[in-house]
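Rotation project, supervised by the postdoc (A.L.). Task for the rotation student: set up a whole-complex structure prediction and record inputs and outputs verbatim in this book. Inputs entered:
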Amino acid sequence: MLNTKMQALGDAPSPIRALFAYGAQRKKEIGSDKVFDFSIGNPSVAAPESIGREIVKLGQADPVAVHAYTQSAGDPGVLQTIAESFNRRFGTSYTNKNFYLVAGASGAISCTLRALLEPEDEVIAITPYFTEYRIWTEAHGGTLVEVPARSDNFEMDLDALEAAITAHTKVVIINSPNNPVGVVYSRQNEEGLADLLRRKSVEYGSPIFLLSDEPYRELVYGGREVPWVPDLYDDTIVCYSWSKCLSLPGERMGFVLVPDAVTQSRAVYSAVCGAGRSLGYICAPSLFQKVIAKCVDEQTDITAYERNRKLLCEILDEFGYEYIEPQGAFYLWVKALEPDAEAFSEQAKKHELLLVPSNGFGVEGWVRLGYCVSEDTIRNSCDAFGALKADYGK
Amino acid sequence: MLNTKMQALGDAPSPIRALFAYGAQRKKEIGSDKVFDFSIGNPSVAAPESIGREIVKLGQADPVAVHAYTQSAGDPGVLQTIAESFNRRFGTSYTNKNFYLVAGASGAISCTLRALLEPEDEVIAITPYFTEYRIWTEAHGGTLVEVPARSDNFEMDLDALEAAITAHTKVVIINSPNNPVGVVYSRQNEEGLADLLRRKSVEYGSPIFLLSDEPYRELVYGGREVPWVPDLYDDTIVCYSWSKCLSLPGERMGFVLVPDAVTQSRAVYSAVCGAGRSLGYICAPSLFQKVIAKCVDEQTDITAYERNRKLLCEILDEFGYEYIEPQGAFYLWVKALEPDAEAFSEQAKKHELLLVPSNGFGVEGWVRLGYCVSEDTIRNSCDAFGALKADYGK
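Outputs recorded:
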């Protein structure tokens, strides 16, 4: 009498969201300073002050103008402002006609996959990967194919990718800076992927689209380069979000960018608009469209994440945890102390440590720590990490 | 190489949205006072002042708290506040566990249909109906069955509905106050539907869900009653929006309400959450969740719509147009002066009158006028209505 697939999705929320909900409850029970919640990517750094100032101005402006529907893709003036900001940053020449504003990178990826996928199409994701890629791929009729990252440095394994690409491959999703590992793909690695996709597109006579999921583009450490992917490969569609770089995760602001260089660019753009329509998206939130237009050149202060990263690494080092040194985003990928990551995450809960098990990211044996938390949370978690290590007698 | 259905949806945007985009362009060309844009349901009445005040306060509050992700269904405290407001209004006993906040009524309907529909399921809509019901039904694998409203008063035709219900009928969508006609179904008419659905649910051994699409609940004139539909029929799911009643259309705030009386209520609620997840919805915009919690008992001032309605009816009367006297919402359903509504809408454009042709609502021969515009727009449109009438030599 209902769609049992949807019920199953609702009954088993994403492991990240489930742990986040557990954390919220637990904080109520024992106090938020007693729970070391590394579950969710909720930025702990405040949005730039200009965001608050613009919100105040819009709260005092003509409400009919502020809150009206915009065109589905977004207000054309707002889109043009965004286009020009990206043009300044990347030397591109986009216009408002290349951008489709939508509710965050999640909405952007969902619309893009729905726009592109036809029955029997395959989408490749690189494990470990963001939990929901599989959900959205399957929601829009595709099949997700997992290709493991290189085990040494978690960059893309181009040989494994080549072996996985078939005549059915429609999309390859990449996410750099990467959630959950924190790796940033090198230019060389991405150029290798671009060469491979060009070769395979010719071989199969149809473009393979590269979906670049970029909510963490601005969150990099030590001056690491994050190449502008459309420069490397023409059939790139960028799914972007201001959730992390402007610390606005709950406001659901992001975009799909379809550059003119994409094969049948206007048709693809139309299909993205059609996909948004078919899913019930009407327009991105009006007030925040105007906020973004004013603040698109702003950046959140990432020095707090840098400090957190250093501090957390020191604690992990102290107790001898094994982890991947993060280059970007705000996640640490830590080896679980037993093969079963879910059991390890449960054990960590006993010390009020909320660590997301790697199973939801498509691999066994690791946990993800979001260090977008207060410095105090990290400092105070030290004993818990020690006690957790002691549980395993090492 | 892409999903051609999505491309077609994008290439042919909803007739309302297409006319709205045309109007925006035309206003730029000749000045907004020269274009009589009755195309879209963008409220012309300002949001209550308290909305602006809350926005200002939130712009000055801790941005980390204001803009954080909430739980997917919405912040539990916000949901509880909403539940209590509806309980006061309708004598119900809902809690936060009955509500799922989502991006407007559109998002709510999309999630509800996706939650319920299985292959071969049918959804019944009463023509004329809101353009997008068909899109969302088909997007989620169902078949839309159109049942004409009664031709005399545009209430539901219960005999025609009975004839249309089959073993495949999963959902009946109703929308009262109605877009596009402006009719409000009487209690007797809705009780008749409830009786019919109970009888048919027993006959086919499975519940038929009543989806009550309620963005216009508060917009009624002359003290007309809008019954609380879950009181009349247990398997009612309410899809609600604050777009019109608080004049916040662009902010995308609405909910799905699954009362406990619904068959397998918890499973249905889970399926709604799962549907939202599968479509890429993450949470309703955080700042506006907090605004709604503060302003949920507020109401927009609908006296302007009452004045507009009266004024527009006077103009239509003056030139002898035939129309349905509206009881609610902010639409007038006017008989086109030729059988082809699209041709009539094109003819009206020559006088800068933007009237939505009825074809997109599933019927021939009418146009929809949204009178959620400034009083001046209506006053100044008088000559254009006269000239349009004169074009048809009557």
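Student's summary: The CA atoms of residues 121 and 168 of chain B lie 5 Å apart.
Supervisor addendum: The first strand of chain B starts at residue 36 and ends at 37.
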